[in-house]
Amino acid sequence: MTRIYNFSAGPSTFPQEVLEQASSELLEWHEKGLSVLEMTHRGKDFVGIAQKAEADLRDLLGIPSHYKVLFLQGGATTQFAAVPLNLLGAKGRAAYVLTGIWAEKAIREAEKYGEIDVVASSEAESFTVIPDLSGVRLDERTAYFHYTSNETIGGLEFQSIPEIKDVPLVTDASSNILSRSLEVNRFGLIYAGAQKNLGPAGITVVIVREDLLGRARPETPTLLDYSVQAKNESMLNTPPTYSWYLLGLVLEWLKKQGGVAAIETRNIRKAKKLYDYIDASPFYVSPVDPRFRSRMNVPFRLGNDALEKSFIEEAKDAGLINLEGHRSVGGLRASIYNAQPEAAVDALINFLKYFEGVHAA
Ligand code: PMP
After folding, report:
1. To 5 degrees, how large is the angle CA 9–CA 359–CA 5?
2. What is the β-pairing status of strands 150-151 and 156-157?
3. Which of 151, 178, 323, 349 has a 20 to 30 Å separation from 196 between CA atoms?
4. Which of 77, 78, 170 for a ligand 1 pocket mutation test, highest count of atoms within 8 Å of Cβ?
């Protein structure tokens, strides 16, 4: 089998070593006579798998002991509702930063549950910059401050944690968790769908400071109540066992790569190569302000829809797939998460050169 280079934004490329390990363990896990797929989640073996995944995540991110780590279902989209349901409390108000499509979805959902102040936005700049937060003043009833650390569609990434004092900081880190170092202790809550840097679709990680538990509104669905999930070790009902197991394998792989610091160095190198090529070429354009470009999702344009269509088709023939931009914005986009080998980025740059050579006027 020749593996193709997959630039999908998620579900996305897995580390090949993890696929090989999962494949070798699929029929029988650790000489136990059964597959992980068949294990009861209450049994010692699966509980061990789950606990190891949590321990590795704590280790990789340096998660302090006064934070709970939850492994939930429903994707990051469910967290758009769970966050306000759990954290708005009696204050009933929250501050959100609008940086693109994912932030907007989080805002629209939160508005169902309370008063949402969009305290900063880069909509007027077509989401090509991270807005300046220095002048932000929070209403005294603000229960938390939410931002999207990486806009997967727009390719826009916060390069540092906002300096927000006095209220819990909440971030949707779905598309950049574990790609760069993160001071967890600056946050009240971090959430991320797994299908980019953590593993497979179907499992979502929530890291929440313990003092924020126990504040859910009475009407909060039981499954979305963080304190109930924490008390039940994320096993209130049947968890997505196989996704949890695969997530654990991805974390083990990341530790073998040298952890977050080592992968961050590699991610910086991969993204720089690609942006440098795009910037040096008169043929391709990166729409995002260089100060805020995402290391994970690299959108670019050719300024001609027909040419972009040919690009996608010819790239596919060359073994490079899923280079189309999100259906809502069009254009082109290369997602280069942790597991994307540097060779894939090199192959893409070679293809960019080739395509430019053939099609540039
Ligand atoms: N937030 C961000 C930043 C995302 O990229 C995505 C998915 N691409 C979501 C939220 C929604 O995630 P899910 O599909 O897991 O609900």
Report:
1. 30
2. antiparallel
3. 349
4. 77
pTM, 2 dp = 0.98
Is the CB of 76 inside a 6 Å radius of any atom of ligand 1? yes
- In a shared domain, residues 251 and 267: no
Q: Whose CA is nearest to atom 14 of ligand 1?
A: 75
Please provide the DSSP assignment of 66-102 as one string.
TEEEEEESSHHHHHHHHHHHHH-TTT-EEEEEE-SHH
CATH of the domain at 88: 3.40.640.10
**Ligand 1 closest atom vs CA 9:** 8
**Distance (Å) from CA 76 to ligand 1 centroid:** 5
Strand partners, 205: 71, 192
Closest ligand 1 atom, residue 79 Cα: 16
Domain count across the chain: 2
Q: What end-to-end distance do the CA atoms of the chain give, in Å?
A: 37
Residue that terminates a domain, selected from 256, 288, 320: 256
d(CA 136, CA 82): 25
Contact 208, 226 (CB under 8 A): yes
The per-residue pLDDT for 303 is 82
pLDDT of residue 112 exceeding 80: yes
Specify whether 289 is catalytic. Answer: no
Ligand 1 centre distance from Cα of residue 155 (Å) = 13
Q: Is position 112 annotated as part of the catalytic site?
A: no
- pLDDT digit string (tens) for 134-151? 999 999 999 999 999 999
